[in-house]
Amino acid sequence: DVITAADLENLAVLGHGNGGTVYKVRHKTTLVTYALKVIHSNADATTRRRALSEISILRRATDSPHVVGFHGSFEKPSGDLAIVMEYMDGGSLETALADGTFSEERLKVVARDILEGLASLHERHITHRDIKPANILLDSKGEIKIADFGVSKLMCRTLEACNSYVGTCAYMSPERFDPEAHGGNYNGFAADIWSFGLTLFELYVGHFPFLEAGQRPDWATLMCAICYGDPPSLPESASPKFRSFIESCLKKESQDRWTAAQLLTHPFVSKDPETH
Ligand code: ATP
Ligand code: MG
Predict the structure, then answer these.
(1) CA dist., res. 74 & res. 87, Å (int)
(2) What are the alphabetically sorted keywords of the record (predicted)?
């Protein structure tokens, strides 16, 4: 059934993001708790466009068990835009990290869940583009889900290409339909894997990989380190399997980086006993 503003009552504020506020709400008749992201009517055009894009991407991705559930969207009479999401009651990986770093055993599970989410997004030609600890949510059942699709992008340009192509689009080559999926210069899928690798690294060491613990980022230095330096490497305490897994994510050249589907077969996360 379609959920409207009148069906919901506010319980609490869960967080503030760029241009929006996320509330904990309850459905008055079903008593189900949801997270409601509200973009105010006076938000700037970019914020509004991002919210509309987030809605269309969530709708496409919602059947994946490791993507936050989507339960509809509506516009209030005031002009506020609202997105109804599954409520994740366990905070994010960023808040979890505040309680202490993650063991390899725990990271194995976290890595596999995020990868399954990423693999299903990438299969649907969606790049997340903002993978980081704060955007991976947890719940008390132990579920781990990818959230925050505000800057995500649908890479498949089939319809757009067909509509703009002068002539018969039936003769267009595959890479013209979807350059990113066929080795285009910018590979958004591989970019998600890089961010995923840094996220796991951070959960293991407790701070952003390119910085010392507690060091404040100086963006120019950081950018140089990322672009011109070697990829960060894990401390001695890390097992060879974990080390190899992180190396496969943090290849400097995007074409050398493993895909989400490949990483799911890596011995660090693989459920297949043969590879252990
Ligand atoms: P930013 O761009 O600053 O990260 P945003 O406006 O894109 O923020 P989100 O990251 O989607 O918004 O959400 C902001 C915060 O609200 C999250 O960090 C999280 O604490 C909380 N939140 C978002 N979605 C949910 C959810 N489904 N369940 C529980 N909490 C949520
Ligand atoms: Mg966010």
Answers:
(1) 17
(2) ATP-binding, Kinase, Nucleotide-binding, Phosphoprotein, Serine/threonine-protein kinase, Transferase
